[in-house]
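Re: the multi-chain job from yesterday

Posting the exact lines I submitted so nobody has to dig through the queue logs.
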Amino acid sequence: MNNPESRFLNSCPIGCKAPLETTAYILPEGALLRCNACGQLISQCTSARYWQSMQEFDDSQGTLPKAGSEAGRVRRSRKFLDRIANLLGLPPEKIRLLDVGCSSGAFLNSAVEIGFCAEGVEPAPKAAATAQYSGLKVRQGLLHEAGYADEQFDAITLFEVIEHLQQPQELLRECRRILRPGGILLIGTGNAGSWSMSAMGASWEYLDIGKHGGHISFFNPGSIALLSQRTGFSVAEIQTRGVRFCEKSNCAAPVYRIAKLAGELVNLPAALLNKGHDMAAYLKRI
Ligand SMILES: [Zn+2]
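And the result, structure tokens for all chains:
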């Protein structure tokens, strides 16, 4: 058992042996650390703070969209699902999909609606119960406890999961075991190599463990590619989107409006250069 007051992450979660250097990004938990080899950014939060922040975020609402944002959420889910079907070259009804960390089932619901044979696994009891209650096929627990068969799935999705993990390699290896060769693993996470990070640094909301329970490990396109290479995947495609120059809570309303407009203007070049702050990595199981 780890000492609750010791640091939750002591080495690069991608598995690099390189030293961690201190950055100038200062969070309440201490300066972010950077892996010298892959550029992964790592929080210095303690084990106690980590587990406390994770607990605060288990509620029955889970990731269900708040009123007003549902249409956007569904559109985005459809884009991911279309891309998966496209990369696999299969119609939705031929695709067995597993959503790992499915929360209360918002993405799963979109997948089922358009015909995917989709199910989920979710460790948080209240969120999992909400998904089950709405009729979705969801197992409550951790992926490695669920005991799926070898090569059982054609596609696996991992949204907002790997930035919480000490050892993402273990999770990706388990995903590889239950994916058939040529299957697609879609990872959605933040992009610490984004222009939003360059502009806002430590005030980028995504880094705030108080607002995003358990966020401790921040990827960039290069570190995702390295992680996939080390766990038996190749990169099929990496897409990023969204640029913000300041957070609404941190600047005056007129400044925020101008910054928002500027963010919209640079969206296209950001997407072309992988500088958006939302990252979707489509990996192919080798
Ligand atoms: Zn590294």
